[in-house]
Amino acid sequence: MVLRYLHIACVFLCCVPVLFAQKTEICNTCKVSTITQAVEMAKPFDTIQVKAGTYKEHNISITKPLSIIGEGMPVIDGENKGEIITIRSDSVTISGFTIVNVGTSYTTDYAAIRVVKSRNFTIRDNILERLFFGIYLEKARQGKVLNNTIKGNAVNEYNSGNGIQLWYSDHVEVTGNTVQNVRDGIYLEFSDHIDIKNNKSIDNLRYGLHFMFSNHNTYTSNLFENNGAGVAVMFSKFIIMQDNIFRKNWGPSSYGLLLKEITDSKLTRNTFENNTQGVHAEGISRMTFTENDFANNGYAIKIQGACYSNTFSRNNFLYNAFDLSYSGRMNENNFDYNYWSDYYGYDLNRDGIGDVPYRPVKLFSHMTDQIPEAIVLLRSTFTGLMDFSEKITPVFTPPGLMDNSPKIKKNKW
Amino acid sequence: MLKIIRYSFFDLARSRWSYAYFLFYLLLGTVLLFLNNNLSGAIITLMNVNIILVPLIATVFGVMYHYNSREFTNLLLAQPLKRSAIFTGQYFGIAGSLSLSLVLGLGIPFAAYGLFRSAMIWNFAVLLITGVALTFIFTSLAFNIALSNENRIKGFGYAILLWLLLAVVYDGIFLLLLAGFQEYPLEKFSLVATVFNPVDLSRILILLKLDISALMGYTGAVFKQFFGTSAGGIFSSLMLSLWILLPLWRMRRIAKKKDF
Fold first, then answer.
1. I want to staple A363 with a disulfide (CB 3.0 to 4.6 A). Which of A326, A390, B45, B136 is the partner?
2. Structural domain that includes position A88
């Protein structure tokens, strides 16, 4: 019996914060008409409901657990004066706001919403426009950034910020966001265990997604289109990249995906379309590339130095100007069961695997790696003849570099 | 001279070869555009045709026409006409009719496709201009060869050799030189080497107009910087006209001295 009372008391006590949590409504004509004021008056675990209207505020500092919910997309206008919302407490939710006019500074990274050293935050369904930095997570953990739309108006790299930036953060879920016209769409630095899913990163000045020193991250089903230089993943380990689309990253120094110093990562079922370089790899090892589509790229894969023990299997290489560019004479990577649209071998025993190995490196692309200026002979008659003769009797291309079991038909999964 | 141009032109315009040439381009253009629906890809394929077939046809056709119309030429020479006028007239007649086949053969399908409303119009214009320039260049070279060689077999041999030299071998030597001097900065050299060969120059002028030029990286940027300026444009058109004018001048000189 005593135990039972104790149990009820326990349940009751646990509910206290919830029971006593209050709802404050604010609107332009209410008694409490600014968010700053409402936040100051609120007790921990309160909910603040913000009605539609325009609130000209900046430096809203949230230091206690609160839910701030916008109804009918109220606008918070920072009037270019600086940072707008700073979260310095655990368990804060911000949703349903249109946040505009973040101040630009060359010394401070002003953000529309910044989370500092906090846990369990949720930032969802906001629209951020005319911004410097969008959502800036600084040493934040176990939070969610969901379904936000970030639309910048970045013109130059030096005075623009990133859409979603994570710095020393971990276990954060970034899902369903759209980031456009900022410097880097999503930027991660020293952030681990981040799950990036279903985001769209389009028309950004520099990278759609940018990783630095961030391990154990997963990004799936994202779209990266028409970014200045594509997606860059650098100096990281144990990254899983799956079902992403890298499209239309076209320009002299642009690529779908730049991999630099990456180890033990997986690249599966991604689509690379119309990029100058689908994948540009430097110093990658123990990576697996499986079931990816490379279509209509300038170079499907460009492998620079120091790439060891990588596996490329069951990929489709379709109508790229060059399937593979490889520098160096030694090959430590493995290619098998890929479909190459340039393969003209035969399959006598009809097992779906070509009887003649395919050499993905054309002599001309090999030459241009040695002598970059030779690219001026692109699509000339001579290089066509040269590639043809090399195909018949290979002399110059790295000897081991071939697909011993090329597929006759496109890989399906 | 105008009379001779007109005569040669209409003589050729009525010939089967011109029709075949015209129909070939018409068919090629139509197939590429309407079965492929990729304007940029069509222009790249046509560029390949442009740099291989146009010079070849112009050379062979030029040599052939000269040898076949020997008797008529001798008849004209018996008349009180200037020799330079006779040969220049014939030259413009043949180059003009070949160019007309090219321009009409490619122009009609492209016009039907609605090119004039698309942004690709300039790329196509560059394609046609270089095609016409190559026709004029290789016809004049062919006339030179034909006039210098009485022996038909020798003439044809030299003509093919010349085509091979400019369209294929030149690039091979170019590549060998690039490989040999790869320790040195080669942008300027490759720029100069490209400008001096009309086939390479045409190819680069077309490529730079297309998306594919992004593949050319740093070297492409140097080229773009040069050809993008008006000075580069003037210089490259000057180079192409020089390739027409020099052989033309030599042709007239040979014609004057030659004993028929």
1. A390
2. 20-181+195-209
Inside any domain, residue A255: no
Q: Is B166 on the interface with A (CB under 8 A)?
A: no
Q: Is residue A136 part of a domain?
A: yes
CB contact under 8 A, A367 and B172: no
- Tell me if A59 is assigned to some domain: yes
CB A287 within 8 A of CB A264: yes
User: Which is nearest to A140 in space by CA: A179, A108, A109, A172?
Assistant: A172
Q: How many domains, chain A? A: 1
B175 → closest Cβ in A299, A374, A381: A374
CATH of the domain at A77: 2.160.20.10
B179/A367 touch (CB, cutoff 8 Å), yes or no: yes
* pLDDT (0 to 100) of residue A1: 53
Q: Residue B79, Cα to own-chain centre: how many angstroms?
A: 32
- Residue B121 phi/psi, 5° resolution? -55, -35
Which of B144, B139, B198, B162 minimizes the C-alpha distance to B9? B139
Chain B closest-CA separation from residue A249 CA (Å): 11
Q: Could you tell me which residues come within 8 angstroms of residue B16 by beta carbon, excluding any fewer than 6 positions away?
A: none
Q: Does B172 touch chain A (CB under 8 A)?
A: yes
Interchain CB contact of A325 with B (< 8 Å)? no
Task: Determine which of A280, A299, A320, A380 to mutate to test the interface with B (most B C-beta atoms within 10 Å).
Answer: A380
Residue A373 falls within a domain, yes or no?
no
Give just the sign of the alpha carbon dihedral A26, A32, A38, A44.
Answer: negative
Query: pLDDT tens digits, chain B, 260 residues: what are they?
Result: 778 888 888 888 788 888 999 999 999 989 988 887 777 778 888 888 889 999 999 999 999 999 998 888 888 888 888 888 889 989 999 999 999 999 999 999 888 887 777 777 888 889 999 999 999 999 999 999 999 998 999 999 999 999 999 999 999 999 999 999 988 888 889 989 999 999 999 999 988 888 788 888 788 888 888 888 888 889 899 999 999 999 999 999 998 888 87
B217 reaches A (C-beta below 8 A): yes
- Tens-digit pLDDT profile for residues A374-396: 888 888 889 989 888 888 888 87
A377 at B interface, C-beta within 8 A: yes
- A108-131, pLDDT tens digit by residue? 889 999 999 999 999 999 999 999
pLDDT value of residue A15: 47
Candidates B93, A105, A98; CA nearest to A113 is A98
- The nearest CA of chain B is from the CA of A367 a distance in Å of 8
ipTM score: 0.85
Asked whether the beta carbons of residue B219 and residue A372 sit closer than 8 angstroms, the reply is yes
Write the CA distances from A184 to A93, A231, B144, B212, integer angstroms. Answer: 25, 9, 61, 26
Report residue A158: phi and psi, to 5°: -75, -25
